[in-house]
Amino acid sequence: MDKSVFKHSILETVRFHEVDILGVCNNAVYFNYFEDARIKYVQDLKKNYHLKILLEGDSFFIMVRNECDYLEPAFLDDELQIHTRITFIKNTSFGFEHLVEKISSGKIIAKGGGAVVHINKSSKQPLQLPDEFYKAVKDFDNTVEILKS
Q1: How far apart are the C-alpha atoms of 134 and 66, rounded to whole Å?
Q2: Fewest CB within 10 A of the end CB: N or C in the chain?
Q3: What is the CATH number of the domain that holds 38?
Q4: What is the domain extent for residue 43?
Q5: What total of structural domains would you count in the chain?
Q6: CA 149, CA 135: separation in Å to the nearest integer?
Q7: Residue 139 half-sphere exposure, CB side, CA atoms within 13 Å?
Q8: Phi and psi (nearest 5°) for 71?
Q9: pTM to 2 decimals?
Q10: How confident is the model over 67-91, as pLDDT tens digits?
């Protein structure tokens, strides 16, 4: 759980509607944080590397796997840093890894990951990731594993 290998992060604050009667952040909320982080990662990649093909026209992403390990709870008003990286890229899919750090303690309180498939929005069929995507991710994070055949 070395957060230094993560080159991207966003800040989230646990809000009132995300906690239970004990003030603990509901487990399902972490998946919303992961989604926010994934979207921001791809948006930043598009902007910083001028990727024109992704999420335009028929280009779309769907989640096919999502998981989370909860190590410690988060509470109302806790500030959380969601660290995100792409761990692998295949022909039509790629995987994310996330660490959730509680700012006040500096502790990692959750970790998770998932896989996303690039699809054609109209046909709902897997769509080859463009070469520019591989190059951009590799440039941004040289630890990514390229599994393209």
Answers
A1: 22
A2: C
A3: 3.10.129.10
A4: 3-146
A5: 1
A6: 15
A7: 10
A8: -100, -40
A9: 0.94
A10: 999 999 999 999 999 999 999 999 9
